[in-house]
From TrEMBL:
Pfam families the record matches: M20_dimer, Peptidase_M20
Entry's Gene Ontology molecular function annotations: hydrolase activity; metal ion binding
Protein name per UniProt: Peptidase M20 dimerisation domain-containing protein
Gene3D superfamilies hit by this protein: 3.30.70.360, Zn peptidases (3.40.630.10)
Cofactor(s) required, per the database record: Zn(2+)
Signal peptide boundaries: 1-21
Alphabetic keyword roster: Hydrolase, Metal-binding, Signal, Zinc
Lineage: Bacteria, Pseudomonadati, Pseudomonadota, Alphaproteobacteria, Sphingomonadales
InterPro entries to which the protein is assigned, alphabetical: ArgE/DapE_CS (IPR001261), Bact_exopeptidase_dim_dom (IPR036264), Peptidase_M20 (IPR002933), Peptidase_M20_dimer (IPR011650), Peptidase_M20A (IPR050072)
Amino acid sequence: MIRYFMPGALMLAALPPIASAQPVTAEALRRDPAFKAAQAHLARDYDRIVAETIRITEIPAPPFKEAERASAVAVMMREAGLRDVHIDEEGNAVGIRPGTGNQSMVAIGAHLDTVFPEGTPIKVRREGDRLLAPGISDNSVSVAVLLAFVRALDAGAVKTKQDLLFVANVGEEERGAFRGVRYLLQRSPYHSRISAFIGLEPGNTGGITNVGIGVRRYTVTYKGPGGHSMFAFGTVNPATAMAETIVRFDRYRPLDRTTVWNVGLVSGGTSINTIPASVSMSVDMRSTNAADLDRLDMFFRKAVADGTTAENAARGGAKGTVAAKIETVLPIERPVTHIPDDTMLLRNAVSAIRSGGMEPSMRSGSSDSAIPQDMGLPGLTLDSGMEYVAPHSPTEAIVLDRPTNLRVMGNTLATLLLTANQ
């Protein structure tokens, strides 16, 4: 997942106001000996966090093939002291740290999967203060931090009213469509007990993902009769119909600055001297404005129809016509979501970050927390502590900055504890 700053477009008019008692609660937590002991353990554990980040990164976890990494993380969860550790029906590795109060629980998760396909070479290398490897920032480092939180809480003998459900989940990236968190919150044995969800993603700036970006993806296939480039010249060309579509689609004028679109893949044809019988393109559309996303979607469909019609009008006839078919890529739509400003989880995150000496920054993103937000359940994605560089690329990296990393980890841990003690 990549998060975005979009000033002026994301409910950024003001950070949510904090109730008068809330900063005191956050400051009181900072003074608590148990929390101080937990933070001290995070500092002592820093080298292990780095080592486990490397270990996790080098276990491949392409989309829908996270099982090997999930099994390894489940072992690490048991070693960290979690109870009832298991791999659930969807493939998530889960474990519980019991609370002292009622049967409700706060879930905190970090996704296991990466965007990189099976067979991608993955070997972590170090360059100065950077560790580089595909998937190391998104999201291997967050899984390592998730495990470090368990050890820190136990080292500080920290108690919580609510149970803590630690989740290394599958299916956040690409066609996964948040399947791991969907299962967790909608069908798992714990779903009725979960009161809030916190997702971990890379970052070291006090970021709070409070808005879920709506995403729609389509593949459009254009088919025609095809033929030899000389002897069938004048026959309708699916590639031309596709080009007509792309030109029309790119003329869209968005109503919202967060609305973006891209034709990212084109394919098809047989040879350079053959009129193609079939070509296709894949399209990605995103926005934090649901109405503008709908408007863009309709504009796109009209562009497909008009582009196809234009080619058929120019060349169609006895030699055949071009037909276009639109297919949805995502198995389940990624909706536009947000968490209301007065939600206690959001207030907790803001107060925890401020009490840690940083200023929170609201962001949008396409991440696991969109699922609880869409369900009306409190859900946020928070920084796990380390700066990320070039995510989703072969040169993906994290930046090791021990003081800042530990400060941000402490802020996120404080958010978890404030929430789990309510």
